[in-house]
Amino acid sequence: MTRAFLFPGQGAQTIGMGRDLAEAYPAARAVYDEVDEALGERLSALIWEGEQGTLTLTRNAQPALMATSMAVMAALRAEGVEVGAAAYVAGHSLGEYSALAAAGALGLGDAARLLRLRGEAMQAAVPAGEGAMAALLGLGFEAVAEIAAEAAQDGVCAAANDNDPAQVVISGDRAAVERAVEIAKLQGAKRAVMLPVSAPFHCSLMQPAAEAMAAALSEVAFHAPAVPLVGNVTAEASSDPDAIRARLVEQVTGRVRWRESVAWMAAQGVTETWEIGAGKALSGMVKRIDRSLEARTVGTPAEVQAASGAFGDA
Fold it and tell me: CB-based burial of residue 63 (10 Å sphere; 0-12 exposed, 13-18 middle, 19+ buried)?
């Protein structure tokens, strides 16, 4: 069995995530404590006891999801499973930072501070209400790319997340995205819906955020990951710290090539994926991309124990 560890992106956040892990594993609790210290605030209190709307704010959701994924990794290590149990790591958008932290390329505190900045910079890049994102289901990437190009005649509209064969997310100026939704409906999309997001992520409107991240990333130490990272921008693996740093900048405005990333890993012999952290969205995508892949979610103490048991039996 050849495994890949996958790390979720924004949208997976829920109040209470990771609390049972922190109660069951001192090492998992230590992750949240370190993130709290790095940010100078008790993000853990918001994650476990706060309001969903506040947690969903981009500046909070990004470091919170990373912290939860890293708490799962700490629990796995406590059960004897190291990141080297995977052949590759990959993360969806912000999940790339989680993947890098899990693989030892990026320190936990640095990852938390970078994601707080990333969230703030992405939010500030476009005035509230001027940008939008929408999910187009049932058309496929090429059809969606053509729709986005047609809708972008007097504004930005681009494919932002190529998630799986049936789901592509577009991003850009609100009017252009709304126009694309109407075109998609006319072209037979199963669903075409605006998403409740605070900014148009992964499109050219995020250039100010990319510039902010370039400056911040240049000040942070990167190391070669213990396990190669399959990047969002390239949909293939790299272990070169400088290349990874550059791709993290490009990722802010670039497309998340998730469908291609999973297909690439399968072509390299990956047969099982472990979704490390909150939610199950990536596992659903994996199964829609390649039905032959086994997809496991690892986010609770019971799932950690089951995963470690399966690893021990392999």
Answer: buried
- Known catalytic residue: 92? no
57-106 pLDDT, tens per residue? 999 999 999 999 999 999 999 999 999 999 999 999 999 999 999 999 99
Question: Taking the complete model, does pTM exceed 0.90, yes or no?
Answer: yes
DSSP, collapsed to helix, strand or coil, labels residue 126 as coil
| Catalytic residue flag (residue 93) | yes
158 in Cβ contact with 199 (< 8 Å) = no
Which phi and psi (to 5°) does residue 299 adopt?
A: -145, -10
Active-site entry in 92, 202, 283, 308: 202
Tell me the one-letter amino acid at 64.
Answer: A
Q: Angle at which helices 58-78 and 301-313 pack, to 10 degrees?
A: 50
The residue from 44, 69, 93, 261 that is catalytic is 93
**Which has the closest alpha carbon to 73: 128, 41, 35?**
35
Over residues 122-177, the pLDDT tens digits come to 999 999 889 999 999 999 999 999 999 999 988 999 999 999 999 999 999 999 99
